[in-house]
Design brief:
With 177 residues, the protein is an all-alpha fold. The chain contains eight helices and no strands. It folds into two domains: 84 residues, Orthogonal Bundle (Rna Polymerase Sigma Factor, Chain: A), CATH 1.10.1740.10; 68 residues, Winged helix-like DNA-binding domain superfamily/Winged helix DNA-binding domain (Arc Repressor Mutant, subunit A), CATH 1.10.10.10. Helices cover 72% and strands 0% of the residues.
């Protein structure tokens, strides 16, 4: 029901509604985009997420009732996949300069490693998974995470340490480490 009210406010052009949508759905949109484009860089992921909310602002009137989350997910997946297809803007400037970009095999391996890492993180139970995502993915400080999750700062640090050990063990078993 809250999504219905939020969508209605967005349709009326209330900026506060957009801010509320960004605050509420950014983790969801980022997670969907990251899954759709495994290996996408943090900056590209932030850009995709911002693009999704810009699209929400522009197209709120076209979204069917009760379908805000699915709409956000579809737009996030499409924008993330498009971002992967877009060639990098930086190319060697000098003629004959060696191309420093990874080759197809390296890029494929990088994406496969990122996919396996993401799967390993998903195996973590809550709140450990959220602590790891907030720390490594959103680059939040341990004190910020503790405050947001209502945990002790020391507990957050312990959870990070235990989670790293679990991830290392799982990835070693898969031959990645």
């Amino acid at each position: 029901m809250q999504e219905e009210k939020l969508l209605e406010r967005l349709r009326r052009g209330e900026r506060a509604a957009l801010e509320q949508a960004v605050e509420r759905f950014t983790p969801y949109v980022s997670a969907v985009a990251a899954r759709a484009a495994v290996g996408i860089g943090r900056e590209d992921l932030e850009e995709v997420t911002a693009d999704v909310f810009l699209a929400l602002w522009k197209h709120a009137g076209e979204i069917q009732r009760g379908s805000l989350r699915p709409w956000l997910a579809a737009v996030a997946r499409n924008r993330a996949r498009n971002k992967l297809r877009t060639p990098p803007a930086s190319l060697p400037l000098e003629e004959g300069a060696p191309d420093q970009r990874p080759g197809p095999e390296e890029e494929s391996q990088r994406r496969e490693d990122a996919r396996r890492l993401w799967q390993a993180v998903e195996r973590l139970e809550q709140p450990d998974r959220e602590v790891v995502l907030r720390y490594y993915f959103y680059e939040e400080k341990t004190r910020e995470i503790a405050g947001a999750l209502g945990l002790n700062h020391t507990t957050v640090r312990s959870k990070l340490s235990r989670s790293r050990k679990k991830l290392r063990q799982w990835l070693t078993e898969e031959g990645m480490v």
